[in-house]
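Hi team, as promised in this morning's meeting, here are the two structures we talked about. I've kept the exact order from the run log so nobody has to guess. The first one is mostly here for context; it's the second one we should focus on when we meet again. Sequence first, then the predicted structure tokens.
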Amino acid sequence: MNYRVGIDIGGTFTDFALLKGTEVILHKNLSTPEDRSAGVMEGLAKLAEIEGLSLGDFLGKCEAIVHGTTVADNTLIEMNGAVTGLITTDGFRDEIEYRRGFKEDIWDVRLPAPKQITPRRRRMTVKERILHDGAVHIPLDEEGVREACRRLRLQNVEAVAISFLFSFVNPDHERRAKEIVTQEIQNAYVCAGHEVLPRAPEFDRTSTTVVNAYVGPRVTSYLERLVARLAEGGYKNQLMVMQASGGVMTKEYIDGAPIRVLASGPAGGVIGSAHVGVAKGHKDLLCVDMGGTSYDMSLVIDGQAPAEAGWNMHHRYLIGVPMVKVETLGAGGGSVCHVNNGALEVGPKSAGADPGPICYGAGGTEPTVTDALVMLGILSTDEGFAGGSFQLTRDGVEEAFQKIGDEMGYGAEEAAFDCWRVVNANMSQGVRRTTAGKGIDPHDLTMLAYGGNGPAFAAIQAEDLGIEKVLVPKASPTFSALGTLVANPTIDEERSYIVPANEAELDKVRALWEELCTRAERFFKNAHFTPDQMVLNYQLNMRYPGQNFSLSFDFKADGKLHDLSFIDENFGARAMELFNQRHMAEYNHIREHETPEISGVRLAAYVETTSPEAKAGFSAATSAPKPAKTRRANLGQGFKDTPVYSGGDLVPGNEIAAPAIIEETFTTIVVYPGWKARVDDAGDYELVKA
């Protein structure tokens, strides 16, 4: 029996999904922030124990280990990345600080700019200039580069980003500068804009390259430690890493631009959601993932969660690489409840995995959402938590909420209930902002809830949003880990070429796509995939004259490697036709009398691999199971004796009326008043209005 393992590291828990034939085995253990690879190996050892194998024998039977990580995200959140310098074209020293004049809240005059990854003293300029057509206007001042390196060395930089004007057209100056920096600042991590984001505009490329340099050493060193530990343990294959684009690829590919793993953990959950939603007949989904630290929201429309390249703001920094759209709030089980100027607030500060909520008994002193769920009786302190890995305690919890109650003028239980109300309101409001920004009515969507805490809030959020159906997969507690096993090995890259569509040089277009094909072939070969396994979508980026942003669309879908026969004399006319169709679908209008321009070519290449099976249907006769026990709990209408069901005892066809609590191994599903839960043929849950 061969295994496939999906892993997702969160701020509080590291999640595992083991695919054994068609069977899925779930596991969670606390993350190890001091060395996250240690937590990964601990979890793999536990899976080996479950299978009755030694770690070496288990890893030897693993045909794939796929990993989503928040290392890059945590680096930006905690601002503890590499000491980073920037070398850029003379005259463009402050471009990274202008940010196009962008401000997240234009009405908040006190909102500070984000902390500079490269403060002005570490931003160096050199004389050089390449024109928009690739011609060299001013040769690279190599001595100027060496002088910049000497000044950066004095500031003990650990990483250097290089971003020159129009390097995406002609990268010669960046290549030479990188050679010099590598010689002058030994052991520094060095990256260049044409490698990280080879397209216009300039600020996008510079910002993305700077962030890549900042997180790069943390990401690559972590992956190197993990690969070494896996190899020592007996794993013989390539480690596959989840990307923000929704695909996976080898560590060697990620090393070229570690920024690709930013938000890769949440992306796994979205890809898994699309897979399950389509299988169950729900193509339009609101996906909500409430874990220990954050609450992630995303949309799947018509069964797709496309990756978009462009104006992606993450943790207040622009990241231009393709990313599955995920909006994040500081609202998780570890979010801290506190009083601010007489008002109760929840988050964004989190207790994380260490020390964690008070109820973990690991030294936490600040009340959190998880503590509130214990106070409300939604979570139990009687049995083992997270699959028996540890047990929750009420010691110190009531006292912490009483301190809040003393400030607010009521008791501890009322304080816990207010914490529950506030965090729920925060999440619902976040969903409204996300859907309204896309012109989507939540009422038209089905909610798919996952994460360790998502199912505990899902139905009450759906009530607030006017959503009438909620899907909760059996594997929801480790759904992002499971999603990594759904994701296909993927390479999504682009090259810039700015030209009116009817004036495109066909040889130039062929050369750019040929270059992307060659790269895809090389990296897929390293991952042991053959060209005949690859599916390629040849895409164009286009816009109307004067537009800042481009739209991407398939020019040739399901193409073959190096087969560019579709580029013929009708290329320009066909490109304009397809772009107008895409623009109409996105913005509901076209500019009939304007000639759109190509801004770049893009290649999305992937290989289809085995995915966990997702089933649908309600063929079993409806039956009402007996609760395992009752517990005093407050599900929004005061404390009552509430039936509690064990998820392991439920079978397809079971229907559970509200109010009720369903305890699964790693999560708790709450059936709020006015709702009911049904178990489908796959053992997954569907919550519907009663």
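And here is the second protein, the one for discussion:
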Amino acid sequence: MRVPPLVVALTAVAALTVVPGSASSTTACPWVGSSASPSTKASQVVTRMTLAEKVQLVTGAATSGPSAGLVKGVARLCIPNIVLNDASAGLGNRQTGTTAFPDEIGQAATWDTSLQTSQGRALGLEAVAKGVNVLFGPGVNLARNPLNGRGFEYAGEDPVLAGKTAAALVQGVQSQHVIATVKHLALNDQEADRTTVSADASERVAAELYLPPFEAAVNAGVGAAMCAYNRVSGSYACQDKSLLDGVLKGRLRFPGFVVSDFQATHSTAAANTGLDVELPTGKFYGSALTKAVQSGAVPVSRLNDMVKRVLTSMFRIGLIDHPPHASAATATTSTSISVATRVAQQGAVLLRNTGVLPLASTVRKVAVIGDAASQDGAARASQGYGSAHVPQFALNGHVTSPLASITTRAQRAGATVSYNDGSNAAQAALAAATSDVAVVFVNDVNNEGLDRPDLKPRSGSCSLSGTAECSYSSVDQDQLVQAVAAVNKNTIVVLQTGGPVEMPWVNQVAGIVEDWLPGQVDGAALAPLLWGDVNFSGKLPVTFPVRLSDGPLKTAAQYPGTKDSLGVPHAVYSEGLLIGYRWYDAKKVAPLYPFGFGLSYTTFRYSKLRMVPTSTGVTMQVTLTNTGKRAGAEVVQVYASAPASAGEPPKALAGFTKLTLRAGETRTVSIPVGSRAFSVWSTARHAWTPVAGCWVVRAGGGSTSLPLLAKLSRGGKTC
């Protein structure tokens, strides 16, 4: 969502005439504290509302304080204001005193749903403290396009991983009586021409890849969904009846309400195609909706459904029985910082290590190189930009810079640290040449509204005023790494990026850490990883290609889109089911680093794979041993390969779990795999259909490291 420059938003909730839970509320608002179902209570409220009150509850209103927007409640009926805020990685929209958590791609890289739920809970608690009761997040659009400028806001390239990440965040946020909003429905996979492009994917491709993460959020109980700017096969997403009514509210049985992305509504008729709430204000709803209802253009029954959907979510998630009343100056807590630190550490991915890490006790001189390591640089480089950005002015001075944290940790080890900002490669090389270890920070600025021009890392900063403008540094960071690596064999590169980057220097350095965009705990989370106080356990949620051209998006018809006779650009999803690792598997192209990959300071052995049939699929039992000398966590991944007749990619992630083992410990874990993993979408039946034949199931620590194999007969056919 892009917040308009003049919308800087609201404080908390307007005081209610009747206080929920009070004796008088029992008479005036019998639904408050009632044990009736949320749907029943919502119906009771709807019957007492005037037309004006109903329209008010589905129309955004102008705001004047720090939030993304406002929908006015109905005080006389004990319905509080709906105060909206961007979230996922922290409360933005000019809020102050909130925590900048790692961006969602870093959250996904933890592959730890329990930790992701903790992050959601922390976000919910901060929302309550700020008087916010609806958060825009999680984002679940898949990384079809590695150039997507908004890829840092999402959970990678696989629908199972994205779905489980989203479900965990939803459960955490909503445990605090704050509504989560899954976004952006659907096929919102690029920023180029994002308000006009038609994303043209087949029914099967949409059903198997791009819609399951939304379904996972719905199954987790998400209260709201946000429709996207783009068109879907020609129709604007926010007025696509087949998408909103047919898929979301029909097939997926979503009981909540649909909000528009800001200015993504194109007509009042959108009410009849499934859009429930227009944001940010009532250009097409408000008075226009009132007239449409009075004329019969929008049936009263449809308006009642819109209002009931809003109220049902509010009752179910607890906004009415637990309304926020005030906005605290500071929402961040020690718990928030602890959760953010654990997410940043467990999401960091060790990509390369020739033995330089963890830093040894013999290291006496450490050269830290790169602008992103400094205090000011960390404030710029630790987050993505756009509506998800926690305000920079609130962060500056609060981000723990890598330089400061590395210096403090080095002192404990009896080492000294020198710093060079990397603006001159030759001078940086001089600093590195006299050091035992050189740590070079390479960052890539990502921004909503702008796709990346290529996979070359570019440092810089972007506007926070609501425009998609960035200024880039003239420093060639690839050249910087190569210059440093040429004089110091113990060069470690720390990548702070929102997605994959090309690494022409990959074999010239001793270590590579993908640190993503870690938020304000930046250096504090990283330094313990470098010295081995904390073990690496992150795994890649996206494939890192050797070069952009190795992937599927090579033509304008695929990206950014070829214009039709009416001037509408069409991004044709002609790669079909082959996105991410599916493409590299099918085309037998070796990536630089594959999906699911990540090293550790310890080692693991996979020894047994057993399948136990269940009523809903199978349970995969995997035996894992920590064969190293220190404790560590491993993400056990299970992939399913369909019979050739199914026309599926070579394999697809079917399930996973993260397991921590002591040195030498052996454990067996159970990973449930539902029947969906052994089905394909039938366009003839418009439904999931089991595929008979011999399925192959593999397990291991990454998409290209799957040592265990088992075969499963389906539909009466034997292997």
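Starting points for discussion:
The chain has three domains: 23-317, 348-531, 596-714.
The chain has a mean pLDDT of 93.
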